């Protein structure tokens, strides 16, 4: 089995590669990544010399290169994680989100059609459903919930999802889509809530909470997401969408306070800052379909997962300190100076 994994130098893609190489030592995994600010080759250092692993630096929008790679590798499956993934950046500059997330997806699927690649999986997000009100805890996102996006990021991901379904219906490409809730765990880029709060707290820097901190996200440990994708690749029904999430809703402020507690830091570091534009209130997944049809359930409880995650950031300072010393500095100054 040969699997092309795009975006494998990022957070979830790298965790997926580690999981698959460990679980299926006979599989070949070929990672394609452009190494944007969010992709880090050092993340893949533990597998880079594995004979079953190969890294190719390429842009998923670059048709010529993608065609060449697909023709040469002839993968059995393509799993597309590559994306611009940060909502705040999409609000500042939507263009690259449209390019990578929509154009890149179609480039990959065109290559699948051209070279007879049988199976394509799109890694999508629950953000395509928009948000739920805080005063309706009875509501959840199902696969039938209409797409109703808020940010340029979620709109670009929804656009990609629609294209994937169009390639299924129009060209018969064998596709599946997974829509997952917020992930957390090792190698999470420190611009996202949980890793940002961990590294800022460790550096005794202020902890910027948007608005009143009451926004709710449904958190899933990254390995549980990887397991769900593995099951969909092997048992999922072609042409179907699967929601992935685990009834683990938390308010942002409670997560930040929990991180302070775990690290023995004072809550006076918490600073309420100007809210994100168009800020989604609540995400909550109904995972019945993947549970009933494919037998998947999350395995890591949040209390355990957050401890593992914090421990990882404590033990892997070099990884995130390298990131903090680079281009990310400019983004951080620009992003938080007016908040
Ligand atoms: P990430 O930003 O950490 O990683 C993205 C990776 O894609 C990086 O390695 C980057 O270099 C690469 N990339 C970006 N543009 C590229 C291009 N044009 N060509 C090739 N590679 C490119 O993102 P992540 O958090 O790991 O998310 C992975 C996928 O999962 C995304 O599609 C995202 O929408 C989806 N997702 C993320 C979450 C979450 O909580 N992080 C939840 C649900 C779904
Ligand atoms: P984020 O990790 O960016 O994920 P997403 O917006 O895709 O859900 O943000 C998670 C939540 O945390 C979201 O409600 C915005 C909030 N947030 C802050 O309060 N402060 C921050 O500095 C960041 C990055 C996010």
Give me some keywords for this one:
binds nicotinamide-adenine-dinucleotide; globular; 7-stranded parallel sheet; two-stranded parallel ribbon; 42% helix; 16% strand; 12 helices; 339 residues; alpha/beta; binds thymidine-5'-diphosphate
Can you characterise this structure?
This protein has a single domain (2-188, 219-248, 284-306, 329-336), classed as NAD(P)-binding Rossmann-like Domain (Rossmann fold, 3-Layer(aba) Sandwich), CATH 3.40.50. 42% of the residues lie in helices and 16% in strands. It has twelve helices and 13 strands. It has helices at residues 11-23, 63-73, 87-92, 95-114, 152-171, 193-202, 222-235, 252-263, 288-294, 302-315, 317-324, 328-336; strands spanning 2-6, 28-33, 53-57, 77-80, 119-125, 175-180, 183-184, 207-210, 216-218, 220-221, 241-244, 249-251, 270-273. A seven-stranded parallel sheet has the order 3-2-1-4-5-6-11, sandwiched between helices. It has a two-stranded parallel ribbon with strand order 7-10. The longest helix is centred in the first third of the chain and has 20 residues, at 95-114. The relative contact order is 0.14. Thymidine-5'-diphosphate binds next to α6 and β8.
